[in-house]
Amino acid sequence: MARAKGGDQVHRRKNGAKGRQNRARQVYVFIEGEVTEKQYIDLIVKHGQRADPRRGVEYHIENATATGKHRKPLPMVQDAVRVLRKVEREAGDAGLDKKKDWNWPQVWVLFDRDDHLGIPEARKLADEYGVSIAYSHPCFELWRLLHYQNYTSTFGRECSSANSRLRQQPGFAQTYGKNARTVSEQQSKHIKPEQILGDGKYATAKKYAQKINKQHSGGNPNDWDPYTDVWSFVEDGLLLSGY
């Protein structure tokens, strides 16, 4: 299972091929939200199934204490580029090969459409330097909603609309207490295990996400409403096959 090792660095040492293959992949993550995305990652890493049990992952939330602009798409990608340069240099010093080794370090940025500016520029910069992106329109709550139901209608960049629909799902309120009838928007930012784990929820959410994403094959990502590819971070970044 992937392990959280916040702040650790790839050690600078030379290894043989066998030694390199036994090293965990280091994944450095920038997240927009201060609560939801962090809790989500912690949960799925703890309960997820590894695609290959021989391949471990250690993840690091790089902007855990950041505030202001350092939680917005373009500045996060700019920060991610600097981290990527550093960790790739360290990985090379440690004897890893970018073209051959599965555990070459990765840097991911998870962000939402919301009403942010600079999203096309952020994606272009990420593509140029090899930073990976998981993007949700209008926001991460769409990905959570897809664990409950399919949803293809537009949100008009209104995350509050996605959050409201999520809170209306049968049984959602009860995950905060069996007698709970309603949940505030602020409360709902805290993810409960029952909302995402078990009963094929991940496979269902991924299937729904891939279906809605097919209608956005190009153009301006500002207009991809709705859209989410968080599943790519789960599988390609954390090397999980589900949770």
Molecular structure report:
The protein is 37% helix and 14% strand. By secondary structure, the protein is α/β, with parallel strands linked by helices. The strands form two sheets. The protein has a six-stranded mixed β-sheet with strand order 1-4-2-5-6-7, sandwiched between helices. A two-stranded antiparallel sheet has the order 3-8. The N and C termini lie close together (11 Å).
Low-confidence sequence ranges: 6-15
Helices, by number, come to 9
- Give the distance, in angstroms, between the N- and C-terminal Cα atoms: 11 Å
- Strand/helix succession: EHEHEEHEHEHHHHEHE
- Spatially, the strands of the biggest sheet line up as 1-4-2-5-6-7
Characterize the main sheet.
6 strands, mixed
Output the structural class: alpha/beta
CA-based gyration radius: 18 Å
Secondary structure: number of strands: 8
Strand content: 5-15%
Mean pLDDT: 92
What is the percent of helical residues? 25-40%
Q: Name the shape in a single word.
A: globular
Which labels suit this protein?
243 residues; six-stranded mixed sheet; alpha/beta; 8 strands; 37% helix; 9 helices; two-stranded antiparallel sheet
